[in-house]
Every structure is written in C-alpha cells, then in structure tokens.
What we know:
Elements: H1 2-30, E1 36-40, H2 47-63, E2 67-71, H3 79-84, E3 93-97, H4 104-107, E4 118-127, E5 129-134, H5 142-151, E6 157-160, H6 166-178, E7 183-186, H7 190-198, E8 204-208, H8 212-216, E9 220-225, E10 251-258, H9 263-277, H10 280-287, H11 298-318
Parallel strand pairs: 1-2, 1-3, 6-7, 6-8
Antiparallel strand pairs: 3-10, 4-10, 5-8, 5-9
Amino acid sequence: MQRRQLLQSAAVLAVPALGSLGAAFAQAQGFPVRPIKLIVAFPAGGPTDITMRSLAENASKILGQPVIIDNKPGAGGTLPAQQLQTAPADGYTLAQIPLGVFRLPYTTKINWDPVKDISYVLNITGYAFGIVVPADSPFKTWADLVAYAKANPGKLTYGSTGTLTSPHLTTELIAQKAGIELQHIPYKGSADLMLAVLSGQLMAAADSTGFAPQVEAGKLRVLNTWGDKRLDKFPNAPTLKELGYDIVQNSPFGIGAPKNTPPEVVRRLHDAFKKAMEEPSYVTALGRYDMQPNYMGTADYSKFAQETFLKEKALVEKLGLGKPS
C-alpha cells in the first residue's frame, strides 16, 4: 500500500515536469515565430558588419523570420557576449563571438565564464590580419618601419580596432620580438581606424583585411600579413614568419546564444546559419576582404572555445597585460 502511494506521488510530480519539457519541445519545434536579434561587435559600415548583414539576410530567408543586426562596438569586441548573459535563453538573441571574448577574464573582472556561460552555435569565418601604412608613407617595407621605431622609441603611432583585440595584442608581441616600442591608439572598429590612417592621424594600422578596398584603391600599402602563407589578395606582402617572427595569427569567429538555450533551438539555428554560409552572396561578401567561410559545428566550436580560452591566457601573461591580482 505504501509503495503504491509513493509511486502515485512520483507520477503526480512527474506530470508538470513532463509538461514543461513538452512545452519547451513544442516551442523549439515552432521556432522562430518572431524576429531574431544578432548582435555584432563592430560598427556599421565595416567589414564585419557588411559580411554579417549578408549572412543575416540569407538566414532570414531560411528561418522565415527577419534576422536583425544590432551593432554594439567597443570594449574590444566583447559587448555582444556580455549582453548574452542577461538575455532570455530562447534563441531570439544571438551574438558574434570574436576571439577577444576568450581573454576577457584575464584582463577584466567579470562574473561570468566565456566557455560555460555561452551556448556555441557554429563558427562561420575568421579574420586575416596585417599592418598597413598610407601609400605616401616613407615606410616602403616592414624593415623601414622597424628602423624608424628603433631610432625613435615610442614615437611611431599605430591604431587597432581596440585595446586587447587580436590586432593590438599581436602587434605588441611583434614589437616585443623586434625590440621596438610603439604608441598604440585604439578605435572602435575598422571603419574609424581606416579614416584615421588615411587622414594621416596615424603612421600605421593593424587590422583585419577590412583594409583591402583602400589597398586596391592605391591609398594604403600592406607591410606584412599574419597567416601561415601569403594572402592571394596581397601576394607581395610577406608573412610574419617570412620576416623572421614565429607568429601566426588567425582569428575565427562565430555565433553564440545564451547559456541553456534549448538544444533543439541551437540545432535549428545551426542548420539555418550553416546553409546561409554556403550561399554565393555570403562567400562573395567575404571575398571582398580576403576572408573565407570557416565552418565549425556546435560540438567543434564549443571545443575550440575551451582550447582558445587557455591559449589566450598564455598570450596575455606573456605581454604582461593581465588584470592586477
């Protein structure tokens, strides 16, 4: 008799739980029923914004609901990931996750974990990087820039897309290896940075290949690129490895959702954005900036997040830029 009562009580308790699971599953099956917000880490008009808008337009057609870009520049590209921490875990708020997100806890006091507190949907592409100077600069080669910097410590100004971004940290690492001291000036994104270097406010700029249109127009010169081989778009620009620095810096980025987003919703988003990546319009948009589709599925992207989190700690510590203990 007592055993029957216990079984009945368990069954009564299980009904609401099953109902809740059923409701969540039904919600996921019908997802999406309203527009989705995709927060981008850099300003409107830059290469990230332009390529992400192309991707969002393709995904909108596949999902049957608008995917609306919301630009949140600043803080080294980490604001979108931070906004996920207070967004509902329903799949209607997504964020671009640049590499800088993984070094955030080492440089700033935060109360969330970049690995555990984001649902990683998929990786979509990545930045290629380099250093450029105005076309009329006296620096015709990287060796010219290094020679000036050695003769004038701290006087050579360069800009990046923000403090503690990959362009900033990698340039500081290059400078460390070259034995030079540079003056860093941060900007909110590529669009602002390009205006500064083109107008003569800066002597050089470290950026993703968002500088491609200005180089092709004859306004900027590429002194080096940071991949493991020369970029097709800039065949005359040597890699850092060719210049004698054992540095390769590529910067994959993808899309994340809030922690505890239902797996069925994550799967639906993954499938839609993967298909959107394969559309010719998106591949063409990436090609303008010498970027390529770089797909990682949900499991692989989550693993990449874990591994990158550890690698970024080593880089921040090497440069002595960690937060005070």
